[in-house]
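To assess whether ligand presence alters the predicted conformation, the chain was also submitted together with magnesium ion. Input:
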Amino acid sequence: MVADSIKKQVSISIIGLPGSGKTTFIAALWELVNEPRLQKALTIESIGKNDHSYLRKIVRVWRKATEQARTRLTGLSAVRMNLQDLHGNVVEVALPDAPGEDFRAMWENRELGRVLGESLADGNIMLLVNGNKVKAPAWVTERAAQRRATGRQKVEALAKEWHPSLAPTQVQLVDLLQLISHPPVGRAGRRLVVMISAWDKVEGERLTPDAFLTAKMPLLSQYIEAGRDGWTSRVYGVSAQGGEYDGNDDNTEPVEDGASKKKTMKGRDADRLREVDIPADRIRLVFGEQESTDLTEPLQWLMH
Ligand SMILES: Nc1nc2c(ncn2[C@@H]2O[C@H](COP(=O)(O)OP(=O)(O)OP(=O)(O)O)[C@@H](O)[C@H]2O)c(=O)[nH]1
Ligand SMILES: [Mg+2]
């Protein structure tokens, strides 16, 4: 029996822009905590007040090695699960699987819904960033050197009207973290995990997750390091799918050139993943030089 006094009421919020990998992460986490054959830092205690059908649905999609459908504005409430550590401390982990658009609206329109606002006010944060979508900033000097090398003239581009949606990802993320670090929205001095998703797509660069963040998102990395808002942080890389999944017909994205070639590559990756004996074994979590399948380890760190 665990005394009430040592029970912790912890909330962890998973946040990230559209397409950052939130739904895929939650599906993989739910699969993992329900897999008795794999070791993990936290195990499932109970599911709590929750919509089981939603979790079941996203796990089914995940097992089939198919992309998740885009999360739409359906008034989805938070996904909650109660997890426990080895000592029997029970913790409630709340994962507001809000559509990425809600996070984008915070930046573009300075709007924050009540439900999202409440879930970000307190507790620790897991910020998902899709490593495959990060564009490293280009330096003016690099551009100039490129032009010299190729002998191309500088073309005077027509001035474009600026819109908040044109801001780089890391600018949006720093703003978001600042916003939730101060009243009236939230508070400073929390723990933060920066989770770089789709790690299978970027590991070829042979960087640790930490080094990846410093190299590709210097503004975000320096904001966290500077410590003004008191974040204590860790950077992980995660392949919640283990590779490329088959496309989801519900996601109507414009077809790019060479899409057919990409599709066969994707198909092969997905077939290989479907053959893994224990589906949760597809998961790969990278921290520094270490690798595991245990997605609950960063959650355990966030519970303190
Ligand atoms: N290769 C690879 N792709 C991934 C991985 N995790 C997510 N993705 C891809 O990243 C894209 C976005 O993933 P989602 O989980 O739908 O992202 P989301 O944050 O829930 O997106 P919204 O619901 O639109 O806010 C999809 O195309 C996924 O297949 C991964 O581990 N590896
Ligand atoms: Mg989603």
